[in-house]
Amino acid sequence: MRKLIFVYNANSGVVNTWLDMAHKIVSPTTYACDLCGLTHGSFSEKRRWKKFRDTDLIPMEFYHKDEFLKKFKSKWLPKYTFPVILYSDEQGLQSFMTATDFKKMASVEQLIEKIKDFIVQLDTTVQD
Q1: CA quadruple 23, 17, 2, 88: dihedral sign
Q2: Residue 36 · residue 30 · CB < 8 Å
Q3: What does the pLDDT average to over 101-127?
Q4: DSSP secondary structure of 1-34
Q5: Interval 9-42: pLDDT, tens
């Protein structure tokens, strides 16, 4: 089954969440997760992102980096720089967007459009 796997450059847990929120408020330009900066405000998920995430265009899974590394632990797993979005299908995991890609994005709308374009491309490839 094909799906997108989002891995944030943040660790799970209440304490880490509070530290991340404080970091975004005090020094947003040095915050280490550009994906989080696109999809979340200082205190919660952006409405536009949540609305898109709730669509049925493609299944999506979301992980903090510690959760991802624990669930997908394998000596064959490539070393990813987080944040990252991976595409998973019968062939395995492939990188869709990298940490560098997120640095070039100015808005959650750009991220959504990139994902929609990717899905259209997938659907076109499957039909050919």
Answers
A1: positive
A2: no
A3: 88
A4: --EEEEEESS--SHHHHHHHHHHHHH-GGG-S-H
A5: 888 776 555 565 555 556 556 556 788 888 987 7
Q: Delimit the domains of the chain by residue range.
A: 3-127
Cα–Cα distance measured from residue 111 to residue 105, given in angstroms and rounded to the nearest whole number: 7
pTM of structure: 0.81
Identify which of 93, 44, 84 has the alpha carbon closest to the alpha carbon of residue 65.
84
Q: Which residues contact 122 (CB under 8 A, 6 or more apart)?
A: 2, 58
> What is the C-alpha to C-alpha distance for residues 73 and 60, in angstroms, rounded to an integer?
19
CA distance 33 to 82: 7
Q: Tell me the residue type at 67.
A: E
Q: Which residues contact 43 (CB under 8 A, 6 or more apart)?
A: 21
